[in-house]
Amino acid sequence: MKNIVGIGLLILMLVSTWHFLLNDVDGGLIFYSSLILTIFLVIIGFNIFLENRDPIQTITWLVIFCAFPFIGFIFYFLFGRNFRKDRIFRKKYFLDKQTFVKISGEAGYNERIMEMGEHPQRLITLANRLGNSPVSFTTETRVLRNGEETFSNIIEELKKARHHIHLEYYIVRDDRIGGLLKDILIQKVKEGVKVRFLYDAVGSWKLARSYIDELKNAGAEMVAFGPLHLPLLNNKFNFRNHRKIIVIDGSVGFIGGLNIGDEYLGQDQKFGSWRDTHLIIKGEAVRTLQLIFLQDWYYSTNNSFLSDEYLMTGMPNHHGYGGVQLIGGGPDSEWTIIKSIFFKMITSAEKSVWIASPYFVPDDNILQALKVAALSGLDVRLLVPKNPDKRIVFHASRTYFPELLASGVRIFQYNEGFMHSKIIIVDDQMASIGTTNIDMRSFHLNFEVNAFLYRTESAQQLVNDYMEDIKVSKEVEIDEFSKRNFGLKLLESTCRLLSPLL
Question: Each residue of 334-358: b (16+ CB within 10 Å) or e?
Fold first, then answer.
């Protein structure tokens, strides 16, 4: 059935475009340009439908090609090409898996897993099988609630570095905080500390060349992840490194939602206060974070540093921290790792599911899981920004509100600035914090990293912080929300149509 629909839409696209060409009064250049475009779109259309993507995604692309041929062509080359990801990242996937399995085998399961109870135990097992990452019970974590707390702790720990500093970021700005971090890194290089800095070529495309040169000239290694020489012809354009990682001397790590830039300190006039969540990690689990960085570094440079000097961690001596598991996911993975763990968290919840996400464009599985959880009587809550920073995603997300509200999900819009936290809390005991949004891009296209916390003090702190965020948010009421004007509903529905492609 899917093939028949695809072929039918392709024929419709070809016929409609050809009709336009035959009635073109200018002829010449327009005729041949349109003919070439039509041929390209037909080839792309057949490729899409032979990839066996989700049927909705396939049909969406074909409809766009029919309605807006030129725009669809450009949009596809920017955002749609995922059919070659297996070939692009196959080598990286197998190298990562072999490395993580080796380390996991050395660490093994801690006998305390059995003490966590059936619910956390199943989630830990799933995360270990998908992400090849063991759970640690000798890792200390602390939640950092905003940019001020995050960067003050980062600066403090960077100044303590004695052997190496590894950084991996999606966005790096050459502004006040970016300049301060750069100066600290240059100083640490002078002290003999090895500095390696991996930044995403698309996320940091505005980063000044002088910023990079200053670090390189000082002796730091600074490398772009997925550099683009011809963006429209580059098959890696759509696969970005969205991770935010710092590892210092193999014993201290940071992950979370904050990139490097003044806006994350609430200094952008457009957004004002910036609500975000980061995590500082000390102890055994930092080794997994180190592995994620080192494998990304190897993929980008072909230089490997998988040695004891980078993988031996300073570990706390007691076991009073609860369980911590670091999981990396991306287009190189055999499974949609982090999405699968999120799905398991939601479907196995017994009391509550609380989510905070700045970009909420769920696929059918996550959406259905949330609705079923709410219909089953669980306390399901969704915290989102009141004001957008990415308008298409913002308007698309609002089209999911009516069905979620109807099923009993409570939705809150954060009012004090922009909310950028990426949090899931289940039953007040298990939580996820990291870089992954509840959207198609994070689930299928971006390289992400999350920490999963099991009965830790940090998980309880996330519960407390979530309650504080609710106090400064306005709950969405279904009756009031349904009164939106027709123009706004039309805009939202249009953005929803594009949601499988975002």
Answer: eebbbbbbbbbbbebbeebbbbbbb
User: Could you say which of 85, 166, 242, 282 is catalytic?
Assistant: 242
CA angle, 479 as apex, 473 and 482 as ends, to 5°?
A: 95
Specify the pLDDT at position 477. 95
**Catalytic status, residue 444:** no
CA pair distance 285, 322, nearest whole angstrom: 12
Active site residue 96: no
Are the C-beta atoms of residues 16 and 63 closer than 8 Å to each other?
no
Per DSSP, the three-state class of 318 is coil
The catalytic residue among 96, 276, 363, 427 is: 427
In this structure, are residues 320 and 105 in contact, taking their beta carbons and an 8 Å threshold?
no
- Considering the candidates 422, 439, 465, 469, report the single residue annotated as catalytic: 422
Q: Please say whether the beta carbons of 259 and 466 come within 8 A.
A: no
The per-residue pLDDT for 424 is 98
**For the whole model, what pTM was predicted?**
0.82
Provide the H-helix boundaries in 278-363: 286-301, 308-311, 337-347
Q: Which of 249, 363, 439, 465 is catalytic?
A: 249
pLDDT in the model for residue 338: 95
Is 270 part of the annotated catalytic residue set?
Answer: no
CA distance 411 to 413: 7
Catalytic residue among 85, 236, 371, 420: 420
Catalytic residue among 85, 182, 188, 244: 244
**DSSP secondary structure letters along 417-477:** SEE---EEEETTTEEEEES--BSHIIIIISBEEEEEEES-HHHHHHHHHHHHHHHTEEEPP
End-to-end Cα, the chain, rounded Å: 25
pLDDT tens digit sequence for 94-114: 555 555 555 554 444 556 776
Active site residue 427: yes
Provide the residue count of the chain.
502
Nearest to residue 110, comparing CAs of 423, 422, 414, 454? 454
What confidence tens digit (pLDDT) does each residue in 387-438 have? Answer: 888 888 888 999 999 999 999 999 999 999 999 999 999 999 999 999 999 9
Which of 73-77, 245-249, 251-255, 263-267 is predicted with the least confidence, judged by mean pLDDT? 73-77
Q: Could you confirm whether 339 is annotated as catalytic?
A: no
Residue 422 annotated among the catalytic residues of the structure? yes
